[in-house]
Amino acid sequence: KKVMGHWIKNFGFSDVRIDSGFIQPRSFIGEITQHLNEIIPGVNTLAEYWDFQLYSGAPCYGFSNSEFDIKGTHLMNNLETNQNFFNELRHHYVRIKEALKEHNMILGISSHDSGRFEGCAHLQKMAATIQFALPTIPIIYYGEEIPMSTYNDRKDPMAQSRDVMRFDLHPSDM
């Protein structure tokens, strides 16, 4: 709490991301959120819960202000192969709409935890359009803007999603 408080107080950060929030006690994340808001009201805390059960009625949010919409990210990432994509996406957002009233959801097309988007450039443009039209906060994972695709041997897709930015792979039509 002291370290995060130091950063927001002395450097003016308005947001704090807690990686691997799913392994932290939720009460601890709640304490951090409360502590930071006592220093600067309105500080946004983003905890990575990887919670697929936002609509289950289980107490899965509310300890931070924001959470990654990992279900939405996986839906976006499988746009090319999922023939029920639009129905599943609509169903997902209808089910979590109550959570969105008081809670920010962060949506990406891909991330370092999900692997890179594997669809063609046209599908990635469509996914980005959908991403920015949904009632979430869009996040662009580095390389999506060009779109950077898999260039390794595909044996370890997670390693590929954590590689350095490949400016030499910039497609001329993007």
Mean pLDDT value: 76
Computed Rg: 17 Å
Q: Which structural class best describes the helix and strand composition?
A: alpha/beta
Report the biggest beta sheet as strand number plus sense, adding barrel if it closes: 5 strands, parallel
Order of helices and strands: HEHEEHHHEHEH
**Largest sheet: spatial strand order:** 1-2-3-4-5
Distance between the termini: 42 Å
The general outline is: globular
The helix content is: 25-40%
Write the layout of secondary structure elements.
Elements: H1 2-11, E1 15-18, H2 26-39, E2 44-47, E3 66-68, H3 70-77, H4 85-95, H5 97-102, E4 104-108, H6 121-133, E5 137-139, H7 157-160
Parallel strand pairs: 1-2, 2-3, 3-4, 4-5
Helix pairs in contact: 1-2, 3-4
Write structural notes for this entry.
The chain is 38% helix and 11% strand. It is an alpha/beta fold and 174 residues long. The chain has a five-stranded parallel sheet. α2 links the parallel β1 and β2. α1 runs parallel beside α2 and α3 packs antiparallel against α4. The protein is globular and about 45 Å long. The model is unreliable at 54-60 (pLDDT under 50).
